Description:
The protein has 9 helices and 7 strands. The chain is of the alpha+beta class. The strands form 3 sheets. It has a 3-stranded antiparallel β-sheet with strand order 3-4-5. Strands 1-2 form a two-stranded antiparallel ribbon. The protein is globular and about 55 Å long. The N and C termini lie far apart (36 Å).
Amino acid sequence: MAVTWIGRRRYTTKTAAGDAVRKILHGNPIGTELAGEEFDLVRDLLDMHHEAEEKIGVGVAGIRIAPPQKGKYPGFEVVRTDGSTIDFSYKTCLTTPSLRSQVHNVMQVEIEDKKAAYFESRRAAGTFTSDLSGVPLDTSDTAVSHFRGPAFAQIADGFAAAEGGWEAIELTPSTDYGLGLFVDRDQADRWRAHWQDRAVLGLLTQAENRSRLRA
Length: 215
């Protein structure tokens, strides 16, 4: 059976991915604003929606459990930075994930070694503190973030446009063992160089990074 990804989370089946989402949906009272890993997972899920750009709009301020729109089950509701709200279906996200979200996930995999090298260089240099608050960092509570320069999505979208669109980037099948990769390794090298030229990295706590991702 095909592997399903939500962000960097790998599930052996689509059913297993759906179970993880339903645990959040039915494990919180209506009106709960998601936080921590629950927010991270559902925020990544939202990016898989085929109308993600329309759902996100001006930006995501939060995601909460919404009353039933139809039937008897609750749903997810995006709270945008301008105060407007819109619901979205997790089933739609899992059934028809956008090509953009799939390529974004693989792009993250292709640069993971560079982000890890940055993380280790900061540790070796003795500058292992948050670039936002200045607090000392713990290795288990640190995020390598693009918060000081263009967002990852901006860098990725620019590369896709230069390559001729998302359809021009072929990925290894989700049924293959291990993490997804670009099929064209020359294209992978171009992506890594494109990202390297534009990324301005920094270190944040996980909580600081989650707050930044809401904006």
